[in-house]
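From the methods appendix. Each design record in this collection lists the tokenized structure first, followed by the designed amino acid sequence. Records were kept in a plain field format so they could be parsed without special tools. The example shown here is representative of the layout used throughout.

RECORD:
FOLD TOKENS (317 positions):
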């Protein structure tokens, strides 16, 4: 897995995250979810990296907050690390820690290893490939901080996965789960053509996709997303929640425009005929590099996102 939105577009899960379905910023398990909910994580690697790099200010704020909760961790485990952008941010933020990136995709983990080497973190950076959560049993040491950034929703039984995560914590160790938030926004409500509120309609399609993706997962279990209660059921204490904002206002940078275009293109490809003729035509205009009303040229596109982190601590026995 990797860090994503509601998959189709990018770094959130469909439901409260504001991304596109299907394949986007995500974490992987190494098996598909069936039909239109299959996600080829290795193929998505460049998009996952671009998204996580663009969202770095948000992750930096989240990690700074965690740094006040977790002082001088010895081992940090990034569950569903994908290509390792956030794993390397952990290595940078906590220079005294070893970081282990865990994912079901070996190609993504190789990218993570190469990134860590390139950034000078390779001497304290490890990778671990395998199915989550079972592969965590192969960790040599319990974790002082275990991070699951938008990866938990790719595991069928989230309650069981949280219990497995909790067991891999050292006494006093912290589990941090990034799930939920708000849908990402790129566009003004009224674009000056087509029906207003295009992104609201895309949100509805992403929610439907996300529900199918969850239902298609092996061992899928419906679960009320009361994260404090779920963390408590895993035996953890002192649950806390905080949301972090990414605000890249208009006029968007070239990098932000490229991300917006890639995300909207994924949505168009994933949803196809479900979009309806008018909305598909709107996306075609938005994605046309020669159209003054498209995202490559218009002055009013932006990136606005909110991601939520839930933490809890393993009691000291």
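DESIGN:
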């Amino acid at each position: 897995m990797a860090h994503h939105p509601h998959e189709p577009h990018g770094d959130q899960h469909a439901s409260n995250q504001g991304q596109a379905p299907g394949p986007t910023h995500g974490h992987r398990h190494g098996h598909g979810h069936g039909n239109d909910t299959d996600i080829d994580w290795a193929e998505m690697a460049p998009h996952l990296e671009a998204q996580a790099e663009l969202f770095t200010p948000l992750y930096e704020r989240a990690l700074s907050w965690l740094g006040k909760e977790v002082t001088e961790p010895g081992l940090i485990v990034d569950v569903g690390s994908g290509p390792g952008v956030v794993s390397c941010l952990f290595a940078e933020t906590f220079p005294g820690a070893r970081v282990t990136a865990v994912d079901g995709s070996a190609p993504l983990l190789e990218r993570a290893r190469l990134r860590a080497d390139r950034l000078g973190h390779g001497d304290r950076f490890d990778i671990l490939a395998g199915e989550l959560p079972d592969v965590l049993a192969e960790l040599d040491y319990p974790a002082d901080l275990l991070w699951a950034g938008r990866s938990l929703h790719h595991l069928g039984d989230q309650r069981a996965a949280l219990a497995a995560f909790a067991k891999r914590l050292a006494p006093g160790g912290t589990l941090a789960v990034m799930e939920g938030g708000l849908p990402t926004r790129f566009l003004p409500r009224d674009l000056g053509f087509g029906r207003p509120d295009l992104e609201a309609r895309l949100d509805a399609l992403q929610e439907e996709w996300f529900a199918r993706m969850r239902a298609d997962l092996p061992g899928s279990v419906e679960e009320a997303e009361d994260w404090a209660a779920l963390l408590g059921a895993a035996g953890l204490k002192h649950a806390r929640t905080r949301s972090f904002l990414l605000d890249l206002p208009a006029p968007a940078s070239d990098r932000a425009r490229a991300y917006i275009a890639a995300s909207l293109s994924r949505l168009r490809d994933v949803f196809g005929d479900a979009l309806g003729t008018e909305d598909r035509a709107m996306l075609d205009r938005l994605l046309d590099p020669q159209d003054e009303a498209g995202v490559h040229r218009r002055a009013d596109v932006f990136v606005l996102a909110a991601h939520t982190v839930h933490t809890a601590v393993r009691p000291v026995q």
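APPENDIX NOTE: The mean pLDDT is 89.
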